[in-house]
Write a structure and sequence with these properties.
Number of helices of chain B: 4
Distance between the termini of chain A: 44 Å
Shape of chain B: globular
CATH architecture of the largest domain in chain B: 2-Layer Sandwich
Helix content of chain A: 25-40%
Distance between the termini of chain B: 47 Å
Order of helices and strands of chain B: HEEHEEEEHEEEEHE
Structural class of chain B: alpha+beta
Strand content of chain B: 25-35%
Largest interface: A-B, 11 and 24 residues
Number of strands of chain A: 4
CATH superfamily of the largest domain in chain B: NADH:ubiquinone oxidoreductase Nqo5 subunit
Structural class of chain A: alpha/beta
Number of helices of chain A: 7
Strand order of the largest sheet of chain B: 1-2-5-4-3
Helix content of chain B: 10-25%
Strand content of chain A: 5-15%
Oligomer: heterodimer
Chain lengths: 178, 191
C-alpha cells in the first residue's frame, strides 16, 4: 500500500481556505468597515443620527463608528449646507483624513447648494472635494443614506486598490514576471 | 403702569423730540432723531421699565434719503407693553450710538447690523462681523448688493463666488390665487 501525503492543501483545513485576488480581499475588508466622519452641518445631520440609531442601524453595513477625529475616518459624510465660512474648514478636515478616503455628499445642499442660491453658500461640496456618492433629498431619509452607503461599498469593491496606492510595488512585480 | 401711562410719561418727557408717532395693532412706534437715542433709551429702561430689548433691525430704503433706518423693539416685562423706536441714518454717516451698555443683548444685534448693513455703532465694545468673516468686503443685506453675491477671496480664510441663479431669482407671489400661481418660480424682477 503506497504511502499517501497531502500536497496541495492540508485536509484538516479543507473548506476554510479561499483563493481570491489581493484587491478583492483588501476591498472586502475596507468596504465593510467604513468609519464615517460625520460632517453634520444642517438638518441632514438629524437624518444621519437617525440612520445611526436603532431603527435604521447603519451598523448593519459596518459604518456605525462615527469618529470625531478625521485621522481615524474613512468616509466623510457631508450632511448639510456648506457655507463659504465653513467650506475651507471642511476641506481642511478632509485633508487630515488618511488615505484611502471617500466622500458622500448627503442631501441637496451638500450636492448642489440646494435651495440656497445665495451669496453665503457654496454651490456643492464637489467644488472643493472629490465626491464619490451624491444622495438626493432634502433631507434624504435614512434609507437613502443607507442606499448611498451601499453604492459606495459597490464602488469600493470595484477599485484597483493596490495599483492605485502602491504603483511602485505593482511595477516591480510586473517587471519580475515579465 | 399701563400702556397709556407709559406713553403719557414718554410724551411728557420728550415733547419736541418725537418726530413722528404711529399706532398699529395697539403698539406704538416713535420716530426719534439719532442724537437723542441714548437719552431716550436710558429713560425707557430706567423710568418706564422697558427691560427687554426684543430685537434691533435695520432697513435699507435704497434710493431715498436718508437711506437707512434702525428699529428698536422694546418690551416691558412687568407691564406687558410693546414700544418701537425708529431712527433714520443717512448713508454718509452710517453710524448710530450703541445701546449695548443699556441692554447688554444689543451687543450682538448691533454686530449683526454692522455685518449685514454696514452701519457702525459708536461706543460698541466689540464691533466685529458676527456672521461673515473678518475681512469680507461687502455688506450683503444692502439693496445694491446682488442676490447672487460677489466674488471675494481671502487665502486660507474663505472665498465666495457668484452663485448661478439659473433664471432666478425664484419669487413667491403674495395673493389669494392657487398655490400653483403663487409658488416660487423664476419671474421677472418687476413682478
Amino acid at each position: 500500500m503506497p504511502e499517501t501525503r497531502s500536497t496541495a492543501y492540508d485536509s484538516k483545513i479543507e473548506g476554510n481556505v479561499i483563493f481570491t485576488r489581493f484587491d478583492a480581499a483588501l476591498n472586502w475588508v475596507r468596504k465593510n468597515s467604513l468609519w464615517p466622519m460625520p460632517m453634520g452641518l444642517a438638518c441632514c445631520a438629524i437624518e444621519l443620527m437617525a440612520a445611526a440609531a436603532s431603527r435604521f442601524d447603519i451598523a448593519r453595513f459596518g459604518a456605525e463608528v462615527m469618529r470625531f477625529s478625521p485621522r481615524q475616518c474613512d468616509v466623510m459624510i457631508v450632511a448639510g449646507t456648506v457655507t463659504y465660512k465653513m467650506a475651507l474648514a471642511v476641506k481642511r478636515i478632509y485633508e487630515q483624513m488618511p488615505e484611502p478616503k471617500w466622500v458622500i455628499a448627503m442631501g441637496a445642499c451638500a450636492s448642489t447648494g440646494g435651495m440656497y442660491r445665495s451669496y453665503a453658500v457654496l454651490q456643492g461640496i464637489d467644488q472643493l472635494l472629490p465626491v464619490d456618492v451624491y444622495i438626493s433629498g432634502c433631507p434624504p431619509r435614512p434609507e437613502a443614506l443607507l442606499a448611498g452607503l451601499m453604492k459606495l461599498q459597490e464602488k469600493i469593491s470595484r477599485e484597483r486598490s493596490l495599483r492605485r496606492q502602491k504603483p511602485e510595488l505593482v511595477e516591480r512585480v510586473e517587471e519580475a514576471l515579465a | 403702569m399701563t400702556r397709556d401711562d407709559a406713553l403719557a410719561s414718554f410724551n411728557k418727557s420728550f415733547e419736541g423730540k418725537i418726530l413722528n408717532k404711529t399706532e398699529f395693532c395697539g403698539e406704538t412706534t416713535y420716530t426719534i432723531s439719532a442724537s437723542d437715542l441714548r437719552e431716550i433709551a436710558k429713560f425707557c429702561q430706567d423710568e418706564l421699565s422697558f427691560d427687554y430689548l426684543i430685537d434691533i433691525t435695520s432697513i435699507d430704503n435704497f434710493g431715498e434719503e436718508p437711506r437707512f433706518e434702525i428699529v428698536y423693539h422694546l418690551y416691558s416685562m412687568p407691564h406687558a407693553v410693546h414700544l418701537r423706536l425708529k431712527l433714520k441714518v443717512p448713508e454718509d454717516v452710517a453710524a448710530a450710538d450703541t445701546v449695548s451698555d443699556i441692554w447688554p443683548t444689543a451687543n450682538w444685534h448691533e454686530r449683526e447690523i454692522y455685518d449685514m448693513m454696514g452701519i457702525k455703532f459708536n461706543g460698541h465694545p466689540n464691533l466685529r462681523r458676527i456672521l461673515m468673516w473678518d475681512g469680507y468686503p461687502f455688506f450683503p443685506l444692502r439693496k445694491d448688493f446682488p442676490l447672487a453675491g460677489l466674488p471675494s477671496e481671502m487665502p486660507d480664510v474663505a472665498f465666495t463666488k457668484v452663485t448661478p441663479l439659473e433664471g432666478g431669482p425664484f419669487v413667491t407671489v403674495p395673493s389669494t390665487a392657487t398655490s400653483k400661481d403663487r409658488e416660487p418660480r423664476a419671474r421677472p424682477p418687476e413682478l
